[in-house]
């Protein structure tokens, strides 16, 4: 079964690579280069402590409302971290942004890389100025973009990482849409709850950017990424392969990464196992366990 999944994924990635080359899409950053202005991205910042003990860069998932990360951001603030949150292009919750879906149709990996680097430079400047540790907290696409920062910088970008179902080893079924990337404006309807999604659907331009990012990470992840990492995953995740993540860690020799398996309780507001970012999405009992695990993970270094 795993061999079949790998074949499907390879075929999809070959197709995507061909399309990317044909369309002239190229990374906006060369390795080691990060000449990005730190005020050219949509970020917000929250400070709960007069004397913070760390800085966290919080990155959301694909077609997810940035505000859906409120529980995570609140937990971080309550535990003494200054929080810098990024809203990627196509994900603004500003009601004045009437052409949001049209913006979403024009996204690309280079654009998202530039925005993520911009937010990182803001968070890193705070951490450096205040001599504080810097932590990545990313969900799904956000986790993958956070890991990509280390690739771009060619060094460990963070002191620690907390990853929620990071999109770095997708299930074969997640690539079924790959052939449609030749139609970037085509919008695939979303089955996620309205309270969590930003747009009614996700354009193939966004899926293409995600596929390209996953493909790049498969080739570029190295020992620099082996920093202290807490990774949350549900064995029944619909998009990300839990066993694939384990194999990924073993193949890369990531002995500083720890997997915590999430089992949702029944009082959740969503049936998607991939969504695990709040008490509402995993249940009160499970969220309490997750926050306790995060607190224990963060405190020794803070």
Our count of helices gives 9
Order of helices and strands: HEEHEHHEHEEEHEHEHH
Under CATH at level 1, the class stands as Alpha Beta
| Total count of domains | 1
CATH topology descriptor: Rossmann fold
> What is the percentage of strand-forming residues?
15-25%
The CATH superfamily turns out to be Alpha/Beta hydrolase fold, catalytic domain
The termini sit apart by 43 Å
Widest beta sheet: strand line-up: 1-3-2-4-5-8-9
Share of helical residues: 25-40%
How many E-type strands? 9
Can you give a write-up of this model?
About 9% of the residues have low confidence. The chain starts with a helix and ends with a helix. 44% of the residues are buried. The protein has 9 helices and 9 strands. The strands form 2 sheets. Strands 1-3-2-4-5-8-9 form a 7-stranded mixed sheet, with helices on both faces. The protein has 302 residues and is α/β, with parallel strands linked by helices.
